[in-house]
Design a protein that fits this description.
heterodimer; A: 132 residues; alpha+beta; 5-stranded antiparallel sheet; 3-stranded antiparallel sheet; B: 463 residues; 8-stranded mixed sheet; 7-stranded mixed sheet; 16 helices
Chain lengths: 132, 463
């Protein structure tokens, strides 16, 4: 579950999930919501690997920035993600979606500002700020 | 939560947050603002972010916020920090993702009266020649050799490719090329993001604007720039596009991982940094310079597009470059009282004595040409503000401002609008920004820069 929140110049996203995997998936879908993504093209599949992030919070930011780079470089929009490996500082994800897609908002980057992946009881949460 | 009681008044336009505010501050933080402006600034987190900047290793004298300051990420927008070049750090968050976002000011030889009747056609031609909008590329797709030369030589290579004349380079900060740029440090992803974006505006608050000079404050300085009342000027506001964004992302990832090895902790991850003299610090400085050069070349190609539009609609006129400034960049500079420092300017303009300082307002309000003043060298590490500064979130702007009403209002002001997106237009409405006149009055009263001329918009082109 994600929620877009106001920020003076950029976009703030709050993500709450019942599992670590869901947090990453919902953060990706929230980012696409911030980008106002529209699927236009045919099916696409991709594997994204992130290794050696500084910690779990950085892993999420690094993963989202990899996904964002695919949107900018190849206009890929992923609608589903399956994590074949999701550890504290590394992951491997199989993504399926469409390309080309169009985006109405230019998210330049996923920032580390306010990012803080936390487990609170049976819920995982974080806030993210996107530079636009 | 910070409130006004935490700030000490230095004078009517300058306030200080003392080191005692928070135990991890290495220097005080200073804010250029009137008391009324301060009330507005305190509504978001910009001053808390400024306090975070004051904790960076090696920061000298004070962390500074300009009157256009607003909440960003890591550094506030409108922030300046000078950090010791020998034992201090460099932080990509102090420059931002849009490396060398900046403003270029061009001058036509025509007056407002001479082009008034063709403004809609002129704006349309400019929009056709200068691609804009989310992810929009241009017609020029650089091969690897040209991209490397753009990254190394900036606007100089754009001129060599035929986009402009050598004289243009004399009127660009740093001659349109930052030294030390190393194309080998630019990742393949960054290259792919930027490969077809040279000569494009992008979206958000980036624009081309045709203005008329409606006030002259300093006749002598205005004459130096060839400006009189009713002169026509053109502003370009954009930066390094996707290439610069990716360079910042790549560098922040490296520094986030390397901070522990350098025994550095920061109160906000977005302030991730490395000693300037470390491998990570040097790599970032040289990659940032390459991205900055891409931005200088980008504005040079956009200038070429405007010149093409102009020659089509206004045959016989010439478009000359007045100046081009970066407002998201780090530079190694020397000051008598602190020695060599790396000055981080994030949403702040260099304002060395006599240097043109270009301050765009919001769409529909005035913009200003100033020149830097001597006091800036003592007070603000040769820096000034960079714009009006946002006060309203884009979400709120979309909810509160009707696009038809806004278009009608701009039309009533005689402003021609060429906008690819209604959403983008309302997000940049004048009420989303601070009062530019008040912002300019602060920097002028503080002695950082002096007013030369004021411009009023005639036509706005944006994505």
């Amino acid at each position: 579950m994600y929620e877009l929140l106001p920020h003076t110049a950029d976009i703030r996203l709050r993500v709450t999930a019942e599992s670590f995997e869901e947090l990453f998936a919902d953060a990706m879908h929230g980012m696409y919501a911030a980008m106002r993504a529209h699927p236009d093209g045919g099916a696409v599949q991709r594997v994204i690997r992130v290794d050696d992030s500084a910690d779990t919070t950085s892993l999420l930011v690094d993963f989202l920035n990899e996904v964002l780079a695919r949107a900018h470089v190849a206009r890929e929009l992923f609608t589903a993600v399956r994590f074949t490996r999701l550890e504290e500082r590394s992951l491997e994800a199989e993504l399926t979606g469409v390309a080309p897609a169009s985006f109405d908002e230019d998210v330049k980057a996923v920032t580390y500002h306010e990012a803080d992946v936390r487990r609170d009881g049976d819920r995982w949460t974080t806030t993210l700020v996107f530079d636009i | 939560m910070m409130d006004k009681s935490h700030l000490e008044k230095i004078h009517d336009h300058l306030w200080e947050i003392p080191r005692s505010y928070r135990g991890d501050m290495r220097v005080p933080a200073r804010v250029y603002a009137s008391e009324a402006m301060l009330d507005s600034i305190l509504r978001d987190r910009s001053l808390e972010q400024l306090v975070n900047v004051a904790t960076l290793p090696g920061i000298r004298k004070y962390a500074i916020a300009m009157p256009d300051v607003h909440e960003g990420y890591g550094f506030p927008i409108g922030g300046v920090a000078a950090i010791d070049a020998r034992d201090g750090v460099i932080s990509p968050g102090g420059i931002g993702y849009d490396i060398n976002c900046g403003v270029r000011l061009l001058r036509s030889n025509k007056t407002h009266r001479e082009i008034e009747s063709i403004l809609p056609k002129l704006a349309h031609s400019v929009a056709r020649e200068v691609p804009s909008g989310v992810g929009r590329g241009g017609s020029l797709k650089l091969n690897n050799e040209d991209l490397n030369r753009v990254l190394r030589d900036g606007a100089r290579h754009a001129v060599e490719m035929g986009f402009g004349v050598a004289e243009d380079l004399r009127h660009i900060e740093s001659g349109g090329c930052l030294d030390g740029a190393d194309p080998a440090l630019i990742s393949s992803t960054a290259r792919e993001r930027g490969r077809d974006q040279l000569g494009t505006l992008g979206s958000g608050n980036h624009f081309v604007e045709i203005d008329r000079v409606d006030a002259i404050f300093d006749e002598e300085e205005a004459a130096r720039f060839g400006l009189t009342l009713d002169s026509i000027v053109i502003q370009i506001h954009t930066g390094s596009r996707g290439l610069g964004h990716q360079v910042a992302t790549d560098s922040l990832r490296v520094m986030t991982k390397s901070m522990a090895a350098h025994h550095i902790t920061v109160p906000d991850r977005e302030l991730a940094c490395a000693p300037l003299r470390s491998a990570e610090g040097k790599d970032y400085l040289h990659a940032m310079a390459a991205a900055a050069n891409f931005a200088f070349a980008n504005r040079q190609l956009i200038t070429a597009g405007i010149r093409r539009a102009w020659s089509h609609e206004v045959p016989g006129d010439a478009i000359d470059l007045i100046y081009d400034v970066a407002h998201n960049v780090a530079k190694v500079e020397r000051y008598p009282d602190v020695g060599e420092v790396v000055v981080h300017r994030k949403g702040a303009t260099r304002a060395f004595p006599g240097q043109p300082v270009l301050i765009p307002g919001s769409m529909g309000t005035a913009s200003y040409l100033l020149v830097g003043a001597e006091a800036a060298m003592q007070q603000s590490f040769g820096s000034s503000c960079h714009g009006a500064g946002r006060v309203m979130s884009r979400t709120k702007a979309r909810h509160e401002i009707g696009v038809d009403e806004l278009r009608g209002r701009l039309r009533a002001l005689g402003i021609v609008v060429e906008a690819g997106s209604s959403k983008g237009l309302v997000e940049e409405a004048p009420e989303a920004y601070k009062d530019i006149d008040a912002v300019i009055d602060i920097v002028a009263s503080a002695g950082i820069a002096k007013k030369v001329a004021r411009f009023r918009p005639l036509a706005v082109v944006k994505g």
